[in-house]
Design goal:
The protein has 13 helices and eight strands. By secondary structure, it is an alpha/beta fold.
């Protein structure tokens, strides 16, 4: 797929972690460098202001500036698709309008998540945010929102023109087939790192990815091989990465990915409260898995070539 035909959410779109200074103010210079580094290492773009970017802990001014930092830093050909989720549909629409003004190509949007919304409310929510004029990537995360964007509901949202794609984080790898049957024009993006291979070979056109924050080249190679059906390349890389990838579906995913970034020489750093540092046991597991991936790539010429 050429850059000219690639939609803003296609390919490996990194849900960016956000670096802070020691006083927990946003380190925009380091973040800008991180955005450039990710695209230089094969990623298609970034999705700032998602849960991995700790958007809930940012002020309105910080959130808007993070978006603009990403847009300004993005190399030619890359794309920025920010998260615009909020408790209020009107607020989420305003964030989508801010994204359009900043130059983003699309937005990522959770369903209403202040309470368990019914289908009528979910449809109205997406219709409201769609008024901003940017394509919407719906984000299905029923574990955290308690609202499930089922294949039939996604088909309705797509049929009514409210969404163009979905980040599928349910963990149920069977759903992509039913989505394809009910809404054949809806793009499905891998939403969780630990089902990347399964959804890649099933027809996903993008990966909203966490662990490329630390290991972009090997993650991109695994994704590209999986969507190409090249299991001889994809499966060994997936097995190597999976002890790390499964952290993306754990409560401590932000801390784990930031620690892996620190280990490989990127700035991950601390999280803002209420997130706490990993326990010593959790840190040991993440450190061991990260170091094993790095050592394997350094020592195995075949793996290194694939990555």
């Amino acid at each position: 797929m050429t850059t000219a035909t690639r939609k803003p959410w296609h390919g490996v779109m990194v849900a960016t972690a956000l670096p802070y200074h020691d006083d927990l103010t946003v380190d925009h210079d380091t973040f800008a460098d991180h955005v450039r580094w990710l695209v230089d290492n094969g990623c298609a773009g970034v999705m700032p202001n998602g849960s991995l970017g700790e958007y809930q802990s940012l002020t309105d001014e910080e959130r808007s500036r993070v978006l603009r930092t990403a847009v300004a830093a993005m190399p030619e050909g890359g794309s920025v698709v920010p998260g615009v989720s909020a408790y209020s549909s009107i607020t989420a629409r305003r964030w989508a309008e801010d994204a359009a003004e900043a130059g983003a190509g699309a937005v990522l949007l959770l369903p209403p998540n202040a309470y368990r919304a019914d289908e009528r409310i979910v449809v109205a929510h997406y219709a409201e945010v769609a008024k901003a004029g940017l394509p919407i990537v719906a984000y299905n995360n029923p574990h955290d929102t308690r609202v499930d964007l089922t294949p039939s509901l996604l088909a309705r949202l797509h049929g009514e023109g409210h969404i163009a794609a979905v980040k599928e984080f349910s963990g149920d790898v069977r759903r992509i087939y039913q989505i394809g049957e009910l809404a054949p024009g809806l793009d499905v993006l891998i939403g969780a790192d630990d089902v990347a291979l399964e959804l890649g070979i099933a027809g996903a056109v993008g990966w909203v990815a966490g662990y490329p924050n630390a290991l972009p080249q090997v993650c991109v190679r695994m994704y590209e091989a999986s969507v190409a059906g090249d299991l001889a390349t994809a499966l060994p890389l997936y097995r190597l990465l999976h002890p790390l990838l499964r952290w993306d579906s754990k409560t401590e995913f932000v801390q784990a990915i930031k620690l892996s970034m620190d280990i490989v020489g990127r700035r991950g750093g601390p999280c803002r409260p209420p997130r706490l540092p990993l326990t010593s046991e959790q840190e040991a597991l993440v450190r061991k898995a990260t170091e094993q991936v790095v050592a394997a790539l350094d020592s195995d010429p075949a793996l290194a070539e694939q990555a």
